[in-house]
Amino acid sequence: MHHNRNEKINQITEKTLVIGIDIAKNNHYACATDDRGRELQKSWRVVQSHQGFELFYHEVQSLMTHHDKTDVYVGFEPTGHYWMNLAAFLEQRQIPFVLVNPFHVKKTKELDDNLQSKNDLKDARLIAKMIPQGYYSIPRDMTPIDQELRRGTAFRERLKKDRGSVLNRIRRWFDLYFPEFTTVFKEIRLHAKTILRMVPLPADVLKVGNETLVEMVRVKQVKALGAEKITRLHQAASHSIGLTDSSDMARREISFLLDQLDLLEDQIDEITTQLVELAKDLPDFEYLSTVPGISATTIAEILAETGSLKLYNHPRQLIKLAGLTLTAQESGEHKGKKKLSKRGRKRLRYLLYKTIFPLIHHNHAFKKLFEYYKHRKDNPLKGKEAIVVLMSKLLKIFHGLSHKEKVFDANRMMTDLTFLPNRLAA
C-alpha cells in the first residue's frame, strides 16, 4: 500500500506499457507511453460501457504485442465516481491501475506545451507521462468489510444531507405559517412532531383547550407534555403572524415533511447500526473503542476512511492521509507561517476535528493535554492549534493501540509530559 517514490519509479521498466486515462462521465480518453514517457499511440476514446471497456482491453493487448511489452500500468485521476466502473473492470482483467492526483495534473499541464490550455487528450497524455516519474499512488487492497464500510458511510452521509434538507424545508414552513412555534419547541423532536401532526396551525391550537391538548398527546402514548409548555404554545398561537391562507395545503405539506423526516431518521439509525456491526469485525475496533469519549459510530466512520490501521507502518502516514502535515513557505532568511497542508482525505480530517471536542469534555487525559498546550510557557498554542495537535495525537494513539493490541492507558499516554508530577491528578 505504501511505497516511496524510488520504488514507484522502479516498478516501471522497459517492458512496461503505460496507459494514462482522462476520466469523464460518458467518454474517457487514453494515451499510451513507454517507461521514458515517449508516446506510443496518440490519445483515443474509451466509451463508458461494457463494449467500450472490451475494445480498450483489446487495444491494450495489441499495443503490448506490437511494442514488445510484457506488463502494463494504467493510471487515471479519481474523478468523482466515474472511475470506479473502469477500475472494477481492470481488476477483473487483472490489470494493475494507479491513481494520479488531479492537483498534480493541473500543475503539470504547462510543462507539456507551455500553454494554459486544458482538454481531455492533453490530460490523458500528461497522466501517462507522470506515472514513469513516480507521481502516482497505489490504491490499497480493500477487503469486503472495508468496501461495505466505505460505501455505507458515504450512503449514511447522503442520508444526513437529505435529512438536513428536509429540516430546512420544515423551518421554512414555520416561517410562513407558525413562526412562534420555534420559541416553544427549540428542536423538532417527539413532542414537537406529535403537536404538529395534531394541531399544526395556530388556528388549530386555539380550537383545542390546554387540558384537551395534553390528553391528546397522552393518548398518542408520548411522554406527558408539561402544562406550562402547552400554555406557552397557546399564547404564541394567539399572537401568531403566520399566514392563514391555503390552510389545507399547509397541513398536508407539514404532514408530508414530517413523514419524510421520520423515514430518513429511521434509515440513518438502521445504517448506523449496520456500520457499527461491520466495524466490530475489524481487529482494530476492540482496541480503539477503549478510548473514553469516542462513540462506536465515530470509530466505524474513521475506519471506513483509513481501513485497518495495521496497514500503516508509521503514524505519520495516517497524519499525512488526513492532511494534518504542516507546511511553510521559506526562502533565504524569510520563514513563513506554518499551516496545514490539507492534502488528504477531507472527510477523515472532519471526523477527527468533530471527535476532539467530546474527548476534551469526557476524557480527563485529553482535557489535561488541551489545557497544557494552550498554557505552556514555551510556544503556547491557540485553541484551534491545540485541537489540531490533539487530532494528530489521537491518530498516533490509534496507531499504537492497533499495532500493539493494547487498551487505552491515560497515564501511559502522558508519560512524556513533565508538567503533571501526579500525572492525571486533578
What descriptors fit this protein?
Helix Hairpins, disordered C terminus, 9% strand, 57% helix, alpha/beta, five-stranded mixed sheet, globular, 426 residues, 3 domains, Nucleotidyltransferase, domain 5, two-stranded antiparallel sheet
How would you summarize the topology of this molecule?
Layout: H1 5-10, E1 16-22, E2 27-33, E3 39-47, H2 50-66, E4 71-76, H3 83-92, E5 97-99, H4 102-113, H5 120-130, H6 144-177, H7 181-184, H8 190-198, H9 202-207, H10 210-219, H11 227-238, H12 247-279, H13 285-288, H14 296-306, H15 315-321, E6 326-327, E7 330-331, E8 334-335, E9 339-340, H16 346-362, H17 364-375, H18 383-404, H19 410-413
Parallel strand pairs: 1-4, 4-5
Antiparallel strand pairs: 1-2, 2-3, 6-9, 7-8
Helix pairs in contact: 4-5, 6-12, 6-14, 10-11, 12-14, 14-16, 15-18, 16-17, 16-18, 17-18
Give a brief description.
This protein is of the alpha/beta class. 57% of the residues lie in helices and 9% in strands.
Pattern of helices and strands = HEEEHEHEHHHHHHHHHHHHEEEEHHHH
As residue ranges, the low-confidence spans are: 419-426
The global form is globular
Query: Structural class of the secondary elements?
Result: alpha/beta
Query: Could you tell me the radius of gyration in angstroms?
Result: 29 Å
Which CATH architecture of the largest domain? 2-Layer Sandwich
Q: Spatial order of the strands in the main sheet? A: 3-2-1-4-5
Number of strands: 9
Number of domains: 3
Number of helices: 19
Percent in helix? 55-70%
* Arithmetic mean pLDDT: 88
N-to-C span: 43 Å
The CATH class of the largest domain is Alpha Beta
The percentage of residues in β strands lies in 5-15%
Per the CATH scheme, the topology name of the largest domain is Nucleotidyltransferase, domain 5
- Give the CATH superfamily of the largest domain: Ribonuclease H-like superfamily/Ribonuclease H
Largest sheet: 5 strands, mixed
